[in-house]
Write a structure and sequence with these properties.
The chain is built from 12 helices and 11 strands. The strands form 3 sheets. The chain has a 6-stranded parallel beta sheet, with helices on both faces. Strands 1-3-2 form a 3-stranded antiparallel beta sheet, covered by helices on one side. Helices cover about 40% and strands about 15% of the residues.
């Protein structure tokens, strides 16, 4: 038996915004129905749901309607994210997530806000703790959101400068000799940080911040010997630090400093099988007061939906490889009767010297 629920909404304008987001032809509607098994039928101010046994879609529509009434833009990409939030926590209030505006983009005026419960938790941890680790796959907003909070704190005069760093490690390629000055040589490694910054601060303001040294983007090697006071410091791609580099970086913290370390332990590019300083630090600093560790998952990926599928496929392959390494090889076949035969064989060697 199929459950039928009729919902009535007083205001047509916000209802239409919601319906445009969840019921676009050949797009989001089919996806929403496939995700929930619930079909939507609209007649004026009334929406009929067929198959909403647990009330999930009803809660989704009512909360999206309330957001639209409050002036929140309705982006179809946010519909499934909102659905994931309510699945993870049926008591969650979407308003608490989608209305937590950190900054407004200069290009279109849209707010930079968390898009998942984990992103919401990450932002809260950054605001509350001296040191926060954001760990997980690419596309989860680890660096982007940290940068947004840093800019917000700078504008609010909670810090005097922003320092962003990353190790200059090539991602599986050898670029060889790069021409130009030292700044020009390291620029390719720091380009993603500039890209994130330009998305939230006008280009001319970024130049002024660089000139006044309220913003510094530098390779990790530049951090040695410094004490970073009144600063918001971000270490990006931290999985490519050694243990010594990570210790050096974490001990740069000075008075009134805020530090965020981001990285993906599944994408370590250190040469020669060196151990990651990020992995070591996460194990060493677990449970220390004033330090937060926020683990992102594939469900938090905010890039193209295919990125989630790709990350999941690679994670599945990594688990299969790990299980194969742990599984002992079968004993060698016995030779002719009376002949000596080896009864054991060594297991597969671990990848990358791990």
């Amino acid at each position: 038996m199929t459950d039928t629920v009729k919902l009535t909404f007083e205001d047509q304008a916000p209802l239409q915004l919601v319906l445009d987001a969840v019921a676009r032809p050949n797009g989001q509607a089919a996806l929403l129905e496939r995700e929930t098994g619930v079909s939507l039928h609209v007649r004026g101010h009334e929406v009929t749901l067929e198959g909403d046994v647990d009330g999930l879609v009803e809660r989704l529509l009512r909360q999206l309607y309330a957001l639209a009434q409050a002036g929140q833009p309705m982006d179809p990409a946010d519909v499934l994210r909102a659905l994931d939030i309510l699945r993870q926590n049926p008591r969650a209030e979407l308003r608490d997530v989608f209305e937590d505006t950190i900054l407004e983009r200069p290009s279109d005026g849209k707010g930079i806000v968390p898009r998942s419960l984990m992103q919401k938790r990450y932002i809260a941890c950054i605001r509350r703790n001296v040191l926060t680790f954001g760990v997980g796959p690419a596309g989860t907003g680890k660096t982007f959101l940290a940068m947004a909070v840093a800019v917000r704190m700078l504008l609010d005069k909670q810090v005097r400068r922003i320092i962003v760093s990353r190790p200059a490690i090539e991602a599986g390629e050898h670029l060889g000799f790069l021409p130009g000055t030292l700044e020009e040589k390291i620029s390719p490694y720091l380009r993603p940080l500039y890209d994130a910054l330009h998305d939230m601060v006008p280009a001319e303001k970024v130049l002024r911040m660089l000139e006044r040294e309220t913003l510094e983007i530098a390779p990790l090697a530049y951090m040695r010997g410094r004490t970073l006071n009144d600063a918001f410091v971000i270490l990006d791609e931290a999985q490519n630090t050694t243990r010594e580099q990570m210790k050096m970086f974490l001990t740069r913290m000075g008075a009134n400093s805020r530090v965020v370390v981001t990285g993906d332990p599944s994408q370590i590019d250190l040469p020669g099988g060196q151990r990651s300083g990020l992995v070591h630090a996460l194990r060493l600093l677990q449970g220390v007061e004033g330090i937060a560790i926020v683990p992102f998952g594939v469900e938090d990926v905010m890039r193209h939906p295919l990125v989630q599928v790709i990350v999941t496929a690679y994670d599945r392959d990594a688990r299969r490889r790990a299980e194969a390494r742990e599984r002992p090889e079968p004993a060698a076949d016995a030779g002719p009767a009376g002949a000596d035969a080896e009864t054991t064989s060594p297991g597969l060697p671990p990848e990358n010297g791990a």
